TrEMBL record:
<keyword id="KW-0067">ATP-binding</keyword>
<dbReference type="InterPro" id="IPR003439">
    <property type="entry name" value="ABC_transporter-like_ATP-bd"/>
</dbReference>
<keyword id="KW-0813">Transport</keyword>
<feature type="domain" description="ABC transporter">
    <location>
        <begin position="5"/>
        <end position="229"/>
    </location>
</feature>
<keyword id="KW-0547">Nucleotide-binding</keyword>
<dbReference type="GO" id="GO:0005524">
    <property type="term" value="F:ATP binding"/>
</dbReference>
<protein>
    <submittedName>
        <fullName>ABC transporter ATP-binding protein</fullName>
    </submittedName>
</protein>
<dbReference type="Pfam" id="PF00005">
    <property type="entry name" value="ABC_tran"/>
</dbReference>
<dbReference type="InterPro" id="IPR003593">
    <property type="entry name" value="AAA+_ATPase"/>
</dbReference>
<dbReference type="InterPro" id="IPR051782">
    <property type="entry name" value="ABC_Transporter_VariousFunc"/>
</dbReference>
<dbReference type="InterPro" id="IPR027417">
    <property type="entry name" value="P-loop_NTPase"/>
</dbReference>
Length: 293
């Protein structure tokens, strides 16, 4: 597996507080990867370290085969943050000129064409644009770098449903046209379902599960039946989460093998079910799963 982002024992500390600690992760190339986890899991810190906006306190992080933050790596990475980093006092045209000055591989034609398709007035200041328009401008700046990796840190969290749909549609069109690798951090599972083909769940700086979404959904099941201790389940059924009443148990399990026990009612999971199962506490009570190739 070729990785666009690799972290080994990566940590970032602010004073006495660790925002990310002992994080080891491989994010594969050639996918639109959804990065999801609870608040405080370290997602934004990880992405900022990868984007060269922060320096690690411990461990290492590599992007596209080289140390993150180096000039060669930064030229290959596009980054769009949650606050859609544009300058309120600059016009749309000013942003395009600034992008051209700062980025050696700037594709002026791509930027102009995309701004035209969006119907943005080049003379309008970014501060006068709607939230959706600012997000689209930020995405245009990221794409016009012609990056190999595009990092998106909750870019649509503050947008209304229509603006969010338009942003994600534009993203998928760009992925198809330019064959980008993408890492998209989001709390909105519906957006991940719409755009991503690979999922990573990060909890407490650690990968709880990672793999192609199609495979993950095919190998995870909900079992409902008479109350049973999880230790009595077959060894090839990894218990992700368990809930019990006086008479009934409900497990989310991961297994490659068919489930033949007639005591169980077996059902599939939605992507949201899968994510929530892996985000449940205590994470330390269940072993980490290896990344699927």
């Amino acid at each position: 597996m070729t990785a666009v982002l690799q972290a080994r024992g990566l940590g970032k500390r602010y004073g006495r507080r660790w925002a990310l600690r002992d994080c080891t992760i491989d994010i594969p190339a050639g996918h639109v990867v959804g990065l999801v986890g609870p608040n405080g899991a370290g997602k934004t810190t990880l992405l900022k370290l990868a984007g060269g906006q922060l320096a690690p306190t411990s461990g290492s992080v590599a992007v596209l085969g080289g140390p993150a933050g180096g000039p060669a790596q930064l030229a290959k990475v596009g980054f769009v943050a949650q606050d859609t980093p544009v300058y309120a006092g600059l016009s749309v045209a000013d942003h395009l000129r600034l992008g051209a000055r700062l980025n050696r591989g700037w594709d002026a034609a791509l930027a102009r064409n995309r701004i035209g398709q969006l119907g943005l007035d080049l003379s309008h200041r970014a501060g006068n644009l709607s939230g959706g328009q600012r997000a689209q401008l930020a995405l245009t700046l990221g794409l016009a770098k012609r990056p190999e990796l595009l990092i998106l840190d909750e870019p649509v969290a503050s947008l209304d449903p229509l603006a969010r749909r338009e942003f994600l549609q534009g993203l998928m069109e760009a992925v198809a046209e330019h064959e980008l690798s993408v890492v998209l951090s989001s709390h909105l599972v519906a957006d991940l379902e719409r755009t991503c083909d690979y999922l990573i769940v990060l909890v407490d700086s650690r990968v709880r599960v990672a793999g192609q979404i199609e495979n993950l959904l095919a190998t995870h099941h909900r079992l409902t039946g008479p109350r049973r201790d999880p230790g009595r389940l077959p060894a090839d059924q990894h218990v992700v989460s368990a809930r019990h009443t006086d008479r009934q148990s409900t497990f989310v399990v991961r297994t490659e093998a068919p489930i033949h026990d007639p005591a169980w009612t077996v059902s599939g999971l939605s992507l949201e079910d899968l994510v929530l199962a892996y985000m449940e506490k205590p994470a330390a009570a269940r072993p980490l799963l290896e990344v699927q190739q």
